[in-house]
Design brief:
The protein folds into two domains: 20-82, lambda repressor-like DNA-binding domains (434 Repressor (Amino-terminal Domain)), CATH 1.10.260; 86-113. The protein is mainly α and 113 residues long. The longest helix has 12 residues, at 99-110. The chain starts with a helix and ends with a helix. The protein is globular, with a radius of gyration of 18 Å. The chain has seven helices and no strands.
C-alpha cells in the first residue's frame, strides 16, 4: 500500500518520529520533591511501570494525553517536561521574590498584559 494513501486512510499508522523529544520526568520529580512516582502515576491514571519506563527512557514517545495527565499530576506544564528543570540557584532566587512581582512575571509569561 502506498505510504501516503495509508496515512490518509489510517492516520494512526502515520510515522512516529525517529528521534522524539526527550522527556525529563524523573528530573522534574526529583526537583519538585513533592510527590512520589507512585502518587504521580495514580493521579495521572497510568501504571507505575509505565511511568518508570518513561522516566528511564525505555519508552520515549508517549501519547500527548499521557504527558498531559502526568504534567497535571505534577503541577507543571506539558512543555516543561520536555526540558530540564531549573537549577536550585534559580529556584531559590525566585522564591525570594515578592508575591506581586511573581504575579506580574506570570502574567507577562502568559501574554495577558
Amino acid at each position: 500500500m502506498d505510504t501516503l494513501l495509508a496515512r490518509k486512510q489510517y492516520p494512526r499508522m502515520a510515522r512516529r518520529p525517529k528521534n522524539p523529544p526527550k522527556l525529563y520526568i524523573g528530573e522534574w520529580i526529583e526537583h519538585l520533591g513533592t510527590k512520589k512516582p507512585s502518587e504521580i502515576a495514580k493521579e495521572a491514571g497510568i501504571t507505575e511501570s509505565y511511568l518508570s519506563l518513561l522516566i528511564s527512557g525505555e519508552k520515549d514517545n508517549p501519547a500527548a494525553h499521557y504527558v498531559k495527565s502526568i504534567s497535571e499530576a505534577m503541577g507543571v506544564s506539558m512543555n516543561a517536561l520536555y526540558g530540564r528543570p531549573p537549577t536550585r540557584d534559580v529556584t531559590d532566587q525566585v522564591t525570594k521574590l515578592a508575591p506581586e512581582l511573581l504575579a506580574a512575571m506570570q502574567e507577562l509569561l502568559r501574554g495577558t498584559k
